[in-house]
Amino acid sequence: MQSEKIEQAYRLAQDRYAESGVDTEAAIEKLAAVSISLHCWQGDDVVGFENQGLDIGGGLAVTGNYPGRARTPGELRSDLQMAYSLIPGNHRLNLHASYGEFPGRVDRNEIDVSHFQGWIDWGKEQHVALDFNPTFFAHEKAQSGFTLAHADDAIRQFWIEHGIAARRISAAMGVEQGSPCVNNVWIPDGYKDNPASRAIPRQRLAESLDTIFAEQLNPHHMIDAVECKLFGLGSESYVVGSHEFYLGYAISRQKCLCLDAGHFHPTETIADKISSVLMYVPELLLHVSRGVRWDSDHVVTMSDDLLAIAHELVRGDFLDRTHIGLDFFDASINRVAAWVIGTRNMIKALLIALLEPTCQLQQLEADDNFTHRLALMEELKSLPFGSVWDHYCQQASVPVGADWLKSVDDYAASTQLRRA
Ligand code: RNT
Ligand code: ZN
What we know:
Helices cover 43% and strands 12% of the residues. The chain has helices at 3-19, 24-32, 73-84, 117-126, 153-177, 199-212, 243-253, 271-277, 304-315, 335-354, 358-366, 370-380, 385-395, 404-414; strands at 36-39, 92-96, 130-133, 181-185, 190-191, 222-227, 238-239, 256-260, 284-288, 290-292, 294-298, 322-326.
């Protein structure tokens, strides 16, 4: 579409929203301040750069064999730059420890910031701040399915050292980028079948975490997050780090809690948890994902679940206390397109939420006027948010509508599909 038509449509939409008491310019300004943390692992099917040839394991499963997977840090950075260029706003990168650049075999308990200097330099050059994750899977010491809750002292110690190393790397990243690096701990520990003790591994996990978090690091440099889960492939009967475990842990230690949209019962959504947990934990990390029948990590679409998350963040004024990350891995479509689709949807959902006359709705609620509340909420759904979105993309110098697909197709032909 011609740029002048996009602007005409925007001006009409602006008036239409103004009639409903919504300032579209103010909404756009708030939206532009939100950074989404793109997950590095969508680009290479969670393989990383350790070259160990191990399955990712940990109950993680990537399906599909679309050609063009990034195999080196250079390829992954190039793919990410392509994706960022098609997404409006300034965003972050969520790195796993297994994506370091290692001179030969460096075991997980030996990693340090030097292995991530390439990413730090790249982030500075691209204006992309980094988040981090220790990698407690795809390793011979995780083959039994246990890491920080392992019964063996030596194995547990190994993983504790990995956790400590990851925090130091995160803090160093935070110093260099002038923005705190969120360091998220997720472990796969759990049993396929009914355990004889549900309590003992949880006691060990709490102790391991306390040891990892013992070192005081500056919260302006790094933020500790912990991620709960209901079940995984191979841990169907018991997951040590359940929701109740980590909720209690995060509250008692005042850590950031990570809620992954795929980590609860299939009919349970995370939107309703946000306002509850933020009463008791200082900050929240979201892994926005889409489970289909199970924790399948499909690309995020504009679903009711996604809109509900965005509405909660905006209505509760929680954007400042929430770090928004994405967590999906689809190898059945172009991997750069997967990032673009999922991230644009997350941003678009936030825009829709920001274009709501929330005060008016909350006043109707306070007045017990549920008829008007419902009627208005439904009418808002057909307001021309698409015209505001198009204008936002245009002013951010990224493609409007599906035009970005052309860039992805050209990039696939010139680059991704040439990877032998
Ligand atoms: C696994 C968790 C975790 C991982 C990443 C790769 O179920 O969601 O966040 O997806 O660490
Ligand atoms: Zn996750």
